[in-house]
Amino acid sequence: MKTLILAEHDHQTIKASTYHAISAAKILGAEVDLLIMGEHCENLAESASFLPHVQHVLLADHAVYAHQLAENCSLLVVNIAENYDYIIAGATTFAKNILPRVAGLLNVAMVSDVMTVVSSDTFIRPMYAGNILSTVRSNDKIKLLSIRTTAFPAVQITNEAQAQIKNLTIVIPNSHAHFESQQLTVSKRPELTSAKIVISGGRGLKSAENFLLLEPIADRLGAAIGASRAAVDAGFAPNDYQVGQTGKIVAPDLYIAVGISGAIQHLAGIKDSKVIVAINNDPDAPIFQVADYGLVGDLFKILPQLQQELDKESWIRKF
After folding, report:
1. pLDDT score recorded for residue 314
2. How far is CA 203 from CA 15, 28, 42, 143, 252, in A?
3. Does 3.10.105.10 match the CATH number of domain 197-312?
4. What's the pTM value of the predicted model, to 2 decimals?
5. What are the distances in angstroms from CA 144 to CA 96, 109, 114, 126, 175?
6. Which of 124, 150, 198, 298 is the most buried (most CB within 10 A)?
7. Which 8-state DSSP code applies to residue 12?
8. Quick one: which of 86, 102, 85, 82 has its CA closest to 37?
Protein backbone atom coordinates (compact mmCIF):
# COMPACT_ATOMS: atom_id res chain seq x y z
CA MET A 1 0.00 0.00 0.00
CA LYS A 2 1.12 3.54 -0.72
CA THR A 3 0.09 6.86 0.78
CA LEU A 4 0.38 10.33 -0.70
CA ILE A 5 0.50 13.20 1.79
CA LEU A 6 -0.19 16.73 0.59
CA ALA A 7 2.34 19.03 2.24
CA GLU A 8 0.99 22.32 3.56
CA HIS A 9 3.64 25.05 3.50
CA ASP A 10 4.35 28.74 3.01
CA HIS A 11 7.28 28.14 0.60
CA GLN A 12 9.68 28.47 3.52
CA THR A 13 8.58 25.95 6.13
CA ILE A 14 6.29 22.94 6.21
CA LYS A 15 3.27 23.49 8.45
CA ALA A 16 2.77 21.41 11.57
CA SER A 17 -0.41 19.85 10.14
CA THR A 18 1.75 17.83 7.73
CA TYR A 19 3.79 16.41 10.64
CA HIS A 20 0.56 15.13 12.22
CA ALA A 21 -0.64 13.69 8.90
CA ILE A 22 2.59 11.69 8.60
CA SER A 23 1.93 10.26 12.05
CA ALA A 24 -1.50 9.06 10.90
CA ALA A 25 0.00 7.58 7.74
CA LYS A 26 2.47 5.64 9.85
CA ILE A 27 -0.45 3.87 11.57
CA LEU A 28 -1.70 2.71 8.17
CA GLY A 29 1.68 1.07 7.67
CA ALA A 30 1.89 2.17 4.06
CA GLU A 31 4.82 3.52 2.06
CA VAL A 32 4.63 7.30 2.28
CA ASP A 33 5.30 9.92 -0.42
CA LEU A 34 5.08 13.65 0.25
CA LEU A 35 3.81 16.03 -2.43
CA ILE A 36 5.05 19.63 -2.38
CA MET A 37 3.27 22.02 -4.76
CA GLY A 38 4.61 25.55 -5.13
CA GLU A 39 7.26 27.75 -6.69
CA HIS A 40 10.96 27.99 -5.70
CA CYS A 41 10.53 25.14 -3.22
CA GLU A 42 13.85 23.36 -3.76
CA ASN A 43 15.08 24.19 -0.25
CA LEU A 44 11.74 23.13 1.18
CA ALA A 45 12.03 19.76 -0.54
CA GLU A 46 15.52 19.34 0.90
CA SER A 47 14.27 19.92 4.43
CA ALA A 48 11.28 17.61 3.81
CA SER A 49 13.69 14.78 2.98
CA PHE A 50 14.56 14.67 6.70
CA LEU A 51 11.00 13.79 7.71
CA PRO A 52 10.61 10.26 9.09
CA HIS A 53 8.63 7.53 7.30
CA VAL A 54 8.76 9.46 3.98
CA GLN A 55 10.26 7.49 1.09
CA HIS A 56 9.92 10.06 -1.69
CA VAL A 57 9.40 13.83 -1.81
CA LEU A 58 7.53 14.69 -4.99
CA LEU A 59 8.28 18.27 -5.99
CA ALA A 60 5.92 20.10 -8.36
CA ASP A 61 7.83 23.36 -8.66
CA HIS A 62 6.35 25.79 -11.15
CA ALA A 63 4.82 29.27 -11.28
CA VAL A 64 1.36 27.79 -11.92
CA TYR A 65 1.43 26.27 -8.42
CA ALA A 66 2.83 29.37 -6.69
CA HIS A 67 -0.34 30.09 -4.70
CA GLN A 68 -1.51 26.48 -4.37
CA LEU A 69 -4.94 27.22 -5.81
CA ALA A 70 -7.31 24.28 -5.64
CA GLU A 71 -8.44 24.44 -9.26
CA ASN A 72 -5.19 23.19 -10.77
CA CYS A 73 -3.54 21.65 -7.71
CA SER A 74 -6.42 19.19 -7.41
CA LEU A 75 -5.92 18.21 -11.06
CA LEU A 76 -2.24 17.55 -10.36
CA VAL A 77 -3.16 15.26 -7.47
CA VAL A 78 -5.65 13.41 -9.66
CA ASN A 79 -2.93 12.91 -12.29
CA ILE A 80 -0.80 10.90 -9.88
CA ALA A 81 -3.58 9.47 -7.67
CA GLU A 82 -3.72 6.08 -9.40
CA ASN A 83 -0.34 5.23 -7.86
CA TYR A 84 -1.71 5.46 -4.31
CA ASP A 85 -4.14 3.74 -1.97
CA TYR A 86 -4.48 6.74 0.37
CA ILE A 87 -4.34 10.49 -0.15
CA ILE A 88 -3.99 12.34 3.16
CA ALA A 89 -3.66 15.90 4.45
CA GLY A 90 -4.20 17.66 7.76
CA ALA A 91 -7.79 18.85 8.31
CA THR A 92 -6.97 22.51 7.69
CA THR A 93 -8.24 25.14 5.26
CA PHE A 94 -5.61 23.94 2.79
CA ALA A 95 -6.97 20.38 2.74
CA LYS A 96 -10.60 21.45 2.89
CA ASN A 97 -9.98 23.45 -0.28
CA ILE A 98 -8.27 20.73 -2.32
CA LEU A 99 -9.36 17.27 -1.13
CA PRO A 100 -13.12 17.60 -1.87
CA ARG A 101 -12.26 18.56 -5.45
CA VAL A 102 -9.96 15.57 -5.75
CA ALA A 103 -12.70 13.31 -4.37
CA GLY A 104 -15.19 14.64 -6.89
CA LEU A 105 -12.81 14.21 -9.81
CA LEU A 106 -11.96 10.65 -8.74
CA ASN A 107 -15.61 9.87 -7.94
CA VAL A 108 -14.76 8.57 -4.47
CA ALA A 109 -15.97 9.47 -0.99
CA MET A 110 -13.87 11.61 1.32
CA VAL A 111 -13.54 10.82 5.03
CA SER A 112 -12.96 14.13 6.77
CA ASP A 113 -11.59 14.98 10.20
CA VAL A 114 -10.34 11.48 10.99
CA MET A 115 -9.60 11.10 14.71
CA THR A 116 -8.73 7.39 14.85
CA VAL A 117 -7.42 4.88 12.33
CA VAL A 118 -9.16 1.62 13.24
CA SER A 119 -7.91 -0.42 10.29
CA SER A 120 -6.84 -0.02 6.69
CA ASP A 121 -10.40 0.83 5.62
CA THR A 122 -12.15 1.91 8.84
CA PHE A 123 -11.88 5.28 10.54
CA ILE A 124 -13.53 7.27 13.34
CA ARG A 125 -14.58 10.86 12.77
CA PRO A 126 -16.71 13.33 14.78
CA MET A 127 -20.22 14.43 13.83
CA TYR A 128 -22.63 17.04 15.20
CA ALA A 129 -19.88 19.24 16.64
CA GLY A 130 -18.14 16.25 18.19
CA ASN A 131 -21.14 15.01 20.14
CA ILE A 132 -21.20 11.79 18.10
CA LEU A 133 -18.24 9.72 16.96
CA SER A 134 -18.98 7.92 13.72
CA THR A 135 -17.15 4.80 12.58
CA VAL A 136 -16.80 4.94 8.80
CA ARG A 137 -15.73 2.14 6.49
CA SER A 138 -14.57 3.01 2.98
CA ASN A 139 -14.62 0.50 0.14
CA ASP A 140 -13.16 2.94 -2.39
CA LYS A 141 -9.95 1.89 -4.11
CA ILE A 142 -8.40 5.26 -3.28
CA LYS A 143 -9.21 6.57 0.18
CA LEU A 144 -9.12 10.33 0.76
CA LEU A 145 -8.63 11.35 4.39
CA SER A 146 -8.26 14.65 6.18
CA ILE A 147 -6.64 14.19 9.59
CA ARG A 148 -7.65 16.03 12.76
CA THR A 149 -4.22 17.21 13.84
CA THR A 150 -5.01 17.28 17.55
CA ALA A 151 -5.72 13.53 17.49
CA PHE A 152 -2.28 12.45 16.24
CA PRO A 153 1.18 13.39 17.55
CA ALA A 154 3.57 15.29 15.31
CA VAL A 155 6.57 13.36 14.00
CA GLN A 156 10.06 14.63 14.76
CA ILE A 157 12.55 15.56 12.06
CA THR A 158 15.47 13.13 11.78
CA ASN A 159 19.16 13.98 11.65
CA GLU A 160 19.73 12.37 8.28
CA ALA A 161 17.94 12.76 4.98
CA GLN A 162 15.93 9.62 4.29
CA ALA A 163 13.68 10.49 1.35
CA GLN A 164 14.57 10.72 -2.30
CA ILE A 165 13.48 13.90 -4.09
CA LYS A 166 11.66 13.44 -7.39
CA ASN A 167 10.76 16.36 -9.63
CA LEU A 168 7.35 16.25 -11.28
CA THR A 169 7.17 17.71 -14.77
CA ILE A 170 3.36 17.92 -14.88
CA VAL A 171 2.35 21.55 -15.46
CA ILE A 172 -1.38 22.33 -15.27
CA PRO A 173 -2.27 26.00 -15.81
CA ASN A 174 -5.19 27.44 -13.89
CA SER A 175 -7.77 28.61 -16.41
CA HIS A 176 -10.64 29.02 -13.91
CA ALA A 177 -9.22 31.29 -11.24
CA HIS A 178 -6.30 33.60 -10.64
CA PHE A 179 -4.64 34.94 -7.52
CA GLU A 180 -5.42 38.54 -6.61
CA SER A 181 -3.93 39.25 -3.19
CA GLN A 182 -3.72 38.07 0.38
CA GLN A 183 -3.56 39.75 3.75
CA LEU A 184 -1.55 37.95 6.39
CA THR A 185 -1.74 38.64 10.10
CA VAL A 186 1.86 39.08 11.22
CA SER A 187 2.46 38.03 14.82
CA LYS A 188 5.40 37.09 17.01
CA ARG A 189 3.12 34.86 19.05
CA PRO A 190 2.90 31.08 18.57
CA GLU A 191 0.75 29.66 15.81
CA LEU A 192 -2.76 29.08 17.08
CA THR A 193 -3.03 25.37 16.23
CA SER A 194 0.33 24.47 17.78
CA ALA A 195 0.46 26.82 20.82
CA LYS A 196 0.67 25.27 24.29
CA ILE A 197 -1.35 28.15 25.75
CA VAL A 198 -4.27 29.89 24.01
CA ILE A 199 -6.35 32.81 25.25
CA SER A 200 -9.51 33.51 23.27
CA GLY A 201 -12.03 36.33 23.38
CA GLY A 202 -15.71 36.34 22.58
CA ARG A 203 -18.64 38.68 22.12
CA GLY A 204 -18.45 39.62 25.81
CA LEU A 205 -15.46 41.86 25.02
CA LYS A 206 -17.95 44.14 23.17
CA SER A 207 -15.50 45.84 20.77
CA ALA A 208 -12.29 45.45 18.80
CA GLU A 209 -10.62 47.93 21.15
CA ASN A 210 -11.52 45.83 24.18
CA PHE A 211 -10.28 42.71 22.39
CA LEU A 212 -6.78 44.20 22.68
CA LEU A 213 -6.98 43.60 26.44
CA LEU A 214 -5.99 40.01 25.68
CA GLU A 215 -2.67 40.96 24.12
CA PRO A 216 -0.58 41.84 27.22
CA ILE A 217 -1.81 38.69 28.97
CA ALA A 218 -0.99 36.59 25.90
CA ASP A 219 2.48 38.14 25.72
CA ARG A 220 3.11 37.46 29.42
CA LEU A 221 2.04 33.82 29.07
CA GLY A 222 3.64 33.26 25.67
CA ALA A 223 0.20 32.37 24.39
CA ALA A 224 -1.55 32.48 21.04
CA ILE A 225 -4.72 34.55 20.68
CA GLY A 226 -7.97 33.07 19.41
CA ALA A 227 -11.56 34.22 19.05
CA SER A 228 -15.06 32.85 18.92
CA ARG A 229 -17.01 33.02 15.70
CA ALA A 230 -19.23 35.72 17.20
CA ALA A 231 -16.18 37.88 17.89
CA VAL A 232 -14.86 37.37 14.37
CA ASP A 233 -18.24 38.10 12.78
CA ALA A 234 -18.48 41.29 14.84
CA GLY A 235 -15.09 42.43 13.52
CA PHE A 236 -13.27 42.16 16.86
CA ALA A 237 -10.61 39.81 15.44
CA PRO A 238 -9.41 38.57 12.03
CA ASN A 239 -10.75 35.34 10.51
CA ASP A 240 -7.57 33.38 11.16
CA TYR A 241 -8.13 33.80 14.91
CA GLN A 242 -11.39 31.85 14.82
CA VAL A 243 -11.52 28.75 17.01
CA GLY A 244 -14.30 26.20 16.70
CA GLN A 245 -16.06 23.84 14.35
CA THR A 246 -15.91 26.35 11.48
CA GLY A 247 -12.51 27.70 12.53
CA LYS A 248 -9.39 26.07 13.91
CA ILE A 249 -9.31 23.03 16.16
CA VAL A 250 -6.92 23.53 19.07
CA ALA A 251 -5.70 21.29 21.88
CA PRO A 252 -3.36 23.37 24.05
CA ASP A 253 -2.21 22.54 27.56
CA LEU A 254 -4.11 25.62 28.77
CA TYR A 255 -7.10 27.29 27.10
CA ILE A 256 -8.47 30.53 28.55
CA ALA A 257 -11.92 31.58 27.30
CA VAL A 258 -12.74 35.22 27.97
CA GLY A 259 -16.30 36.43 27.41
CA ILE A 260 -17.21 33.31 25.45
CA SER A 261 -20.60 31.80 26.23
CA GLY A 262 -19.66 28.35 24.95
CA ALA A 263 -21.76 27.66 21.87
CA ILE A 264 -21.57 24.03 20.78
CA GLN A 265 -19.61 25.01 17.65
CA HIS A 266 -16.91 26.64 19.76
CA LEU A 267 -16.72 23.80 22.26
CA ALA A 268 -16.12 21.39 19.37
CA GLY A 269 -12.85 23.17 18.68
CA ILE A 270 -11.46 23.21 22.23
CA LYS A 271 -12.67 20.00 23.92
CA ASP A 272 -9.27 18.30 23.59
CA SER A 273 -7.57 21.05 25.64
CA LYS A 274 -5.95 19.69 28.81
CA VAL A 275 -7.08 22.56 31.08
CA ILE A 276 -9.89 25.01 30.26
CA VAL A 277 -10.35 28.24 32.20
CA ALA A 278 -13.53 30.28 31.60
CA ILE A 279 -14.14 33.93 32.49
CA ASN A 280 -17.76 35.01 32.09
CA ASN A 281 -20.32 37.11 33.98
CA ASP A 282 -23.09 34.57 33.35
CA PRO A 283 -22.86 31.67 35.83
CA ASP A 284 -25.16 29.62 33.60
CA ALA A 285 -23.02 30.00 30.47
CA PRO A 286 -22.45 26.62 28.74
CA ILE A 287 -18.69 27.18 28.79
CA PHE A 288 -18.66 26.41 32.53
CA GLN A 289 -19.93 22.89 31.84
CA VAL A 290 -16.63 21.98 30.18
CA ALA A 291 -14.30 24.33 32.07
CA ASP A 292 -11.90 22.96 34.66
CA TYR A 293 -11.80 26.37 36.35
CA GLY A 294 -14.34 29.16 36.14
CA LEU A 295 -14.31 32.82 37.12
CA VAL A 296 -17.77 34.39 37.29
CA GLY A 297 -17.59 38.15 37.11
CA ASP A 298 -16.99 41.25 35.06
CA LEU A 299 -14.17 40.46 32.64
CA PHE A 300 -13.27 44.16 32.46
CA LYS A 301 -12.34 43.94 36.14
CA ILE A 302 -10.90 40.44 36.10
CA LEU A 303 -8.52 40.96 33.15
CA PRO A 304 -6.69 43.94 34.68
CA GLN A 305 -6.40 42.05 37.97
CA LEU A 306 -5.04 39.03 36.13
CA GLN A 307 -2.56 41.25 34.32
CA GLN A 308 -1.38 42.76 37.60
CA GLU A 309 -0.86 39.33 39.17
CA LEU A 310 1.08 38.11 36.15
CA ASP A 311 3.28 41.20 36.25
CA LYS A 312 4.09 40.49 39.92
CA GLU A 313 5.35 37.01 39.19
CA SER A 314 9.06 36.64 38.52
CA TRP A 315 8.38 33.43 36.63
CA ILE A 316 5.45 31.78 34.88
CA ARG A 317 4.83 28.08 35.23
CA LYS A 318 5.34 26.33 31.92
CA PHE A 319 2.30 24.27 31.02
Report:
1. 53
2. 30, 42, 44, 40, 22
3. no
4. 0.84
5. 11, 7, 10, 16, 25
6. 198
7. S
8. 102
